[in-house]
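Support request from a user on the community tier.

User writes: "When I paste my C-alpha cells into the form, the page sometimes reloads and wipes my input. The last time it worked, I copied everything first. Here is what I submitted, just in case something in the input itself triggers the reload:"
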C-alpha cells in the first residue's frame, strides 16, 4: 500500500485506475495502523486490480478535509473515478471485502 503525498497524486490515480481504495489514517491512530496491513495483505491477493493507497491525515490535512474525512480511520473505494463505498471508524473488514467484491466482480467479469 503506497503512501500518497499530494492531492495531485490522488487525482491521477482516480483518473487512471479503474479501482482505487484509499485508507485515510494517522500514525497516532491505533486502529488505522492495525487494519492497514490487514487490508493490504488480504485485498492485494483477492483484488489484484485494486490500487490501494494510504493518506496520512496529519501530513495532508487539506486532502482529508476535501474528502470529508474528519474522524479516523476512513476507507473510500472508487470505481471508474466515482466513490462507491465509504466506511468510517468502526467497520468490519469482512463486510468491506464483500462490498468491494460485488462491484469488482462486475467490472472484471
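"...and here is what came back when it finally went through:"
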Amino acid at each position: 500500500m503506497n503512501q500518497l503525498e499530494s492531492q495531485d497524486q490522488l487525482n491521477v490515480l482516480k483518473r487512471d485506475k479503474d479501482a482505487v481504495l484509499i485508507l485515510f489514517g494517522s500514525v497516532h491512530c491505533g486502529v488505522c495502523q492495525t487494519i492497514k496491513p490487514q487490508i493490504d495483505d488480504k485485498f492485494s491477493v483477492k483484488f489484484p486490480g485494486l490500487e490501494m493507497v494510504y493518506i496520512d491525515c496529519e501530513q495532508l490535512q487539506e486532502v482529508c478535509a476535501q474528502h470529508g474525512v474528519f474522524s479516523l480511520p476512513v476507507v473510500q473505494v472508487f470505481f471508474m473515478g466515482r466513490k462507491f463505498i465509504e466506511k468510517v471508524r468502526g467497520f468490519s473488514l469482512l463486510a468491506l471485502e464483500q462490498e468491494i467484491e460485488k462491484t469488482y466482480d462486475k467490472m472484471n467479469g
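Agent notes: The reload is a front-end session timeout and is unrelated to the input. Strands lie at 2-3, 19-25, 50-56, 74-79, 82-88. The chain has four helices and five strands. Escalated to web team.
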